[in-house]
Fold:
Amino acid sequence: MNSDYLILLARNKEEQYKQLAETLSDYNISLLYCKNNGIDLRLNVIRHKPFAVIFDSSELGMQDIIDVIEECRDPNGLPIFYNIYTYEDGERIKQLEESGVHFNVPTPYNSSAIAGHLKLLCENTPVDEREFCDNIRSEIYDIMLELCISPSRTSWNYIMESIMCLLFSGGGRFTVCRSVYESVASKLDVSISSMERTIRTAVEGSWKNAPEDVKQKYFPEFYLTAGKPKNMDFIYRLAEYVYRQHKGLFNKYYDSQCN
Structure:
């Protein structure tokens, strides 16, 4: 589940957070490292949008911390700022709390306890459904570009909406059947037969023009046999690939739909 969450560790020494990082990795939580300074923090938070940031306020100016929090925090209150400090006085800790630092922990600290706390935060943070849907659509967009499918073609919408329908309407049951086509055709006001013909042409063009490593990445079974995937196989494999990359978040989404 936790592979959907990225934690940014800001450190200036390679051994810093070593035990904590090992425990987080055991929990299958993805880690990224950067320097513990205002510029590196800001750039990496903006670029990678981590779930949480672990840093040491003792090595940063107060204004640097405030600037990073104000500039980088999203509407959902993320990332979580987790300060593991070497030394701070009570007044500065109060300032950090008022500025939006979620947790302030002095060293020495219990790595297992903090890793367990972060794991619980990951597991219990609700999914922002609209943002999640938009992010997945954006990811599919990039995949389709890799597969040489042009956004200017009618087939683009047919394939995109079919994958989205499969991911968000099936409750995790990946069965590409006529009901997916019926749903998309109704939404886009086209006939199923027309939609299938257009998708078939796009799949043929993609298989002809996409780089070999891209075809192998998304369709390993078909690449090995040199056989072009059929429409439903094409849609299913892409949906399955995206689901595997974000399995934890999708399962959270499906659970929320059932409650």
